[in-house]
Fold:
Amino acid sequence: MYKLTREGLKKLKARKKKLENKLRSLLKKKNDVYRNSGDEWHDNPTLYNLENEADSLRRSISEVKKKLSQVKVISKNGKNDRKIIDIGSVVKIEFGDGAKSIFTILDPESVDLNAGVISYKSPLGKALIGMKEGEKSSYNVEDKVINIFVHEIIKKEE
Structure:
């Protein structure tokens, strides 16, 4: 199962469409090259490169289609009340080094680190899901342990 918000699903569908349009355009270009210079890849490095790029796009489209077939659309505000961190929560946390940050926890397609939006699948997101205000926890990134403290669950996005 691949959990996404409605916005995340919309972004994933748009990504699929963009990839499909790019593949269509590339295949047209490949056909033009084929018609103008032959189909022998060893005699035509441009044709060879276009075929490799098309294969890469087909794999990407296949991955997106697989995700779309496994999507479960979730509400940003989840099932829990504001007292428990869930997808859609906006939280103020403090790291072990004293740095404080505010994060919104959403799906992987909605991640925007510049805006403080993290995925529930990220190491920090996984650590925060299910926590309450005032709780401490830690998570690992590679071989480093990072301590966190939940100052406040600011709100749940609708």
Remarks:
- The chain has a mean pLDDT of 87.
- Strands lie at 2-4, 71-73, 89-95, 100-106, 117-119, 136-141, 144-156.
- The CA atoms of residues 85 and 130 lie 5 Å apart.
- The helical segments are 6-37, 45-69, 123-128.
